């Protein structure tokens, strides 16, 4: 297991522009990123890039080195950063001795006869996914599982 970064941030104003600024601070435009947005009645599926319209209740953006998750609250946004590289300085580390380990994953979607979703999940057909486990070294318990694109 290798050292990892598990941090959080609360944005009080709830403005979509604030969330966009944090995403810009976490992901460079040259990185290959993917996003997944969720509403109570639907999901976006996995999309390439960071969408310009972030009006959703929760979502995540991920790349090979990090994943940023957010959730709308009545007072703003709650964000969680999971990465193998340090986040921007304004994030607050979560208590624990964080370590990471990569695993393979299978993506079930509309092309598969075996699906775990009520409907087919849209995603770029070239995308191969992996999972990154974030474990607290003191307890050996996996607390978070992040998505990562992998080459194959």
Which tags fit this structure?
single chain, 152 residues, mainly beta, four-stranded antiparallel sheet, 1 helix, 7% helix, globular
Task: Give the ordered list of helices and strands.
Answer: EEHEEEEEEEEE
Strand content: 35-45%
SS class: mainly beta
Roughly how many Å apart are the termini? Answer: 22 Å
Percentage of residues in helical conformation: under 10%
Description of the molecule:
The chain is mainly beta and 152 residues long. The chain has one domain. The chain has one helix spanning 16-26; strands at 2-3, 5-11, 34-38, 43-48, 58-62, 66-73, 76-83, 92-93, 98-104, 129-136, 141-149. The strands form two sheets. The protein has a seven-stranded antiparallel β-sheet with strand order 4-3-5-6-7-2-8, covered by helices on one side. It has a four-stranded antiparallel β-sheet with strand order 1-9-10-11, with no helix packed on it. A hairpin with a 4-residue loop joins β3 (34-38) and β4. The longest helix has 11 residues, at 16-26. The protein is globular, with a radius of gyration of 16 Å. The relative contact order is 0.24. The model has no long low-confidence stretch (mean pLDDT 87).
């Amino acid at each position: 297991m290798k050292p990892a970064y598990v941090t959080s941030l609360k944005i009080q104003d709830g403005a979509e522009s604030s969330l966009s600024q944090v995403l810009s601070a976490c992901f460079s435009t040259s990185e290959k990123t993917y996003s997944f947005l969720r509403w109570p009645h639907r999901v976006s599926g996995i999309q390439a890039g960071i969408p310009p319209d972030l009006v959703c209740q929760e979502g995540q953006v991920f790349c090979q080195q990090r994943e940023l998750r957010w959730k709308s609250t009545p007072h703003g946004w709650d964000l969680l950063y999971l990465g193998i590289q340090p986040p921007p300085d304004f994030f607050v580390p979560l208590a624990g001795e964080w370590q990471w380990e990569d695993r393979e994953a299978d993506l079930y979607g509309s092309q598969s006869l075996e699906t775990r979703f009520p409907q087919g999940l849209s995603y770029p057909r070239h995308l191969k996914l992996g999972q990154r486990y974030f474990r607290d070294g003191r307890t050996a318990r996996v607390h978070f599982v992040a998505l990562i694109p992998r080459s194959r």
